[in-house]
Amino acid sequence: MSRSAHPAGPRHGDVLPESHYTAPPADLNALDEKVWSRTVRRGDDGVVTVAGLEVTKLAEEFGTPAYFLDETDFRERCRAWAHAFGSDADVFYAGKAFLSKAVVRWLKEEGLNLDVCSAGELSTALAAEMPADRIAYHGNNKSVPEIRRAIEAGVGRIVLDSFQEIARVAHVARELGVRQRVQIRVTVGVEAHTHEFIATAHEDQKFGIAVADGQAAEAVRRALGHDSLELIGVHSHIGSQIFDTAGFEVSARRVVQLLAAVRDEHGVELPEIDLGGGLGIAYTPEDDPREPHEIAKSLREIVTRECESAGLAVPRISVEPGRAIVGPTAFTLYEVGTIKPLEGLRTYVSVDGGMSDNIRTALYDAEYSVALVSRASDADPMLSRVVGKHCESGDIVVRDAFLPADLAPGDLVAVPATGAYCRSMASNYNHALRPPVVAVRDGAARVIVRRETEEDLLRLDLG
Ligand SMILES: *Cc1c(COP(=O)(O)O)cnc(C)c1O
């Protein structure tokens, strides 16, 4: 608890970061459409609805905390990505952002492919009958049994992340008598402009094989040397919550240069490149994400230009958005408990969840918004910090927010844009029961992942 839990010394969540708030918004009752899912409205009576369902009724029926996932919004975003990239490109949804059988079915119906990076994610995909050839298998430390299972299932591609893995996958594929389609994940020396913990393409990191020092070219050499591997291309993922395509520009250039070097050395033009995911979403009204068609247009232009100058045919492009599809489609509904005003500082508003259902604020200093949703209020704005109920001072959900000064225990508040990396990173810390995910669509609500129970916890505890 608090400082002693972090023997490594000061870190996020211990040394509380500076406040980032500017001024209170003009209207605390307004719901900015950038951060809320598309069917969220505030009714004339002040109660917020999603897909036509009042949050007060949803709380009664499903309890709090709970995630409400706007299925219409999710499907529209899938369609927008698929349409923007068209038939000569592939969109892989990054399952780690949030995966469940219902989500897999929606992806399948909307024509998207799926990235998985563990046996558990693969089994969820297969349980919901995602065709295996539409699955890409990622990870920096796939075990031999995982590799065998992925190949036996018939996954469309395995993204190779190290020299050892090239040999391992080649060996397992040979044993199984399969020619496995693979890509090589490279690092291109680009650091996405975002928090250090979630930037992944500078070379000092566990993922990928560096282009700069010739390692990636050596990896291609080795992969091409195995008859049991069909090398279809190169993969580069440069980070997360990125708003500007400058990083992708450098990444595409280096990847295309590698393809040109491969052609020069081996006389082979690799047919595909994957530019990864990492496109940003609005967590607060200050964030300004770009639409899928703009992203598609600029990535296509960048790749085409680089290929022209290298004299290469334009390869098939794939991208892997996770957050940009599911992030904006859900909010977390909480009930307000203890309210503690600290004179001259701020008011601490405790909710009935916390870092067990949203670790991102504690982990990355992520910013979120919050609103009172069970009623409207004309009270003055009150500088607030929304915190959870865990035994940890870093258990913060929303670091700085304005809530109405008449906020009271029993009110419902909602934190928008929690579709990605919240339920998927949820924990049982303090033996919290992980909240349900409720899909809402056209006036109907359906639990797609149920709330954990104490029986679930005790089932694992063999005494
Ligand atoms: C995490 C990850 C993604 C998705 O990232 P988002 O920020 O959710 O878009 C895509 N590709 C790879 C390889 C990843 O590790």
Unreliable stretches, pLDDT < 50, 5 or more residues? 1-17
Structural class based on helices, strands and sheet pairing: alpha/beta
Task: Note the total helix count.
Answer: 12
Termini gap: 25 Å
DSSP strand count: 21
Biggest sheet statistics: 9 strands, mixed
Using only CA atoms, what is the Rg? 23 Å
List cofactors, ions and other ligands. pyridoxal-5'-phosphate
- Overall pLDDT score: 93
In short:
The chain has 463 residues and is of the alpha/beta class. The chain is built from twelve helices and 21 strands.
Characterise this structure.
The longest helix is centred in the middle third of the chain and has 21 residues, at 246-266. Residues 1-17 have low confidence and may be disordered. The protein has 463 residues and is of the alpha/beta class. The strands form three sheets. Strands 4, 14, 15, 16, 17, 18, 19, 20 and 21 form a nine-stranded mixed β-sheet that branches. The protein is globular and about 70 Å long. The protein contains twelve helices and 21 strands. The structure holds pyridoxal-5'-phosphate.
